[in-house]
Automatic annotation (TrEMBL):
Name used for this protein in its record: Type IV secretory pathway, VirB4 components
Length: 293
């Protein structure tokens, strides 16, 4: 979801059956929003409203609309209303679909298979007859068949590609930069949203200009982002000179991109540690001089 773009076409649909179990109407409580449950419902309703722009669709289904949070009902574009015997349900669902008071009464009389359908840009709701599905005598059970074309995420390869996107200008032996592969892997990488956005910016810049954005930035801006590409163990930075070689070896096992790239990633880890006040600046400078000598 994080890797999605604003105003994306429909990519996935989530069905919330018996929606009142997770989107319960909290208006009947003493103080709306004061309880943990009410706050949770509010957060879910807000999330549903925001995720639609990234291509996520929601089907909210319930036999009692009055039991569902009103915000969730308001945020739906298409409403399909079948027979509702309860007056409170008719008022809530019917008014949300722009029905008149006379039409609301008819909701209690709808025969099986007949529904009122309304979309937000329609002038008025429409009465529809839904065709009955004739199933075969043999029960058809759904079975999931995985897509054989599904891309297998190679974490080691992706880390290496992303590391080169950020650090290739600091290497003596340059490699082919693959911004498309890096961007595709963002959907699977274990990174924060801010880091994904930053890496995508590097990919876009390289595609547009044919050169590395990282080459124009200060090392202090690159190091924190690069250090997030690997699974770094808990490090005692007070022993910087002693653990450097071992750390480089561990990084190389995660990148498989050569010793020089691994050393640059080690440098990023130490620089990021100084920015987070986990390593004294003087010790970092001493370690850095030792690496260059």
């Amino acid at each position: 979801m994080v890797s999605g773009e604003i105003n994306s076409p429909l990519r996935h649909v989530t069905v919330l059956e018996e929606a009142h179990n997770i989107l319960r109407n909290s208006q009947t409580e003493a103080a709306t929003g004061s309880t943990l449950a009410a706050k949770s419902v509010e957060m879910l309703a807000n999330a549903i409203a925001e995720m639609r722009t990234y291509g996520e669709g929601f089907i909210i289904a319930d036999q009692s609309p009055n039991a569902v949070d009103i915000a969730a009902i308001r945020n739906t574009n298409t409403k399909i209303i079948m027979r509702l015997p309860d007056e409170a349900d008719r008022q809530l669902a019917g008014k949300s679909a722009g029905m008149t008071n006379e039409q609301l009464i008819e909701l209690a009389k709808l025969p099986k298979g007949v529904a009122v359908v309304y979309q937000n840009d329609w002038l008025e709701p429409v009465l529809c007859k839904i065709a009955h599905h004739q199933s075969s005598t043999e029960q058809q059970l759904y079975q999931y068949h995985p897509d054989s074309s599904t891309v297998v995420f190679d974490k080691t390869k992706w880390r290496r590609q992303a590391a080169r996107l950020l650090l290739d200008h600091r290497l003596t032996l340059h490699s082919i930069i693959e911004p498309d592969a890096v961007e595709q892997g963002l959907a699977y990488a274990s990174l924060s949203g801010a880091s994904r956005i930053a890496l995508k910016r590097h990919c876009d810049y390289y595609r547009e200009h044919g050169e590395l954005l990282a080459a124009k930035l200060n090392f202090a801006e690159i190091a924190p982002l690069a250090s997030q590409l690997i699974d770094a163990p808990l490090i005692d930075f007070s022993q910087a000179s002693k653990i450097s070689e071992q750390l480089t070896h561990q990084i190389e096992s995660q990148l498989r991109g050569g010793n020089e790239l691994a050393r640059q990633m080690t440098h990023c880890l130490f620089k990021a540690a100084t920015l987070e006040n986990r390593l004294d600046e003087a010790n970092y400078i001493d370690w850095s001089k030792g690496e260059r000598s």
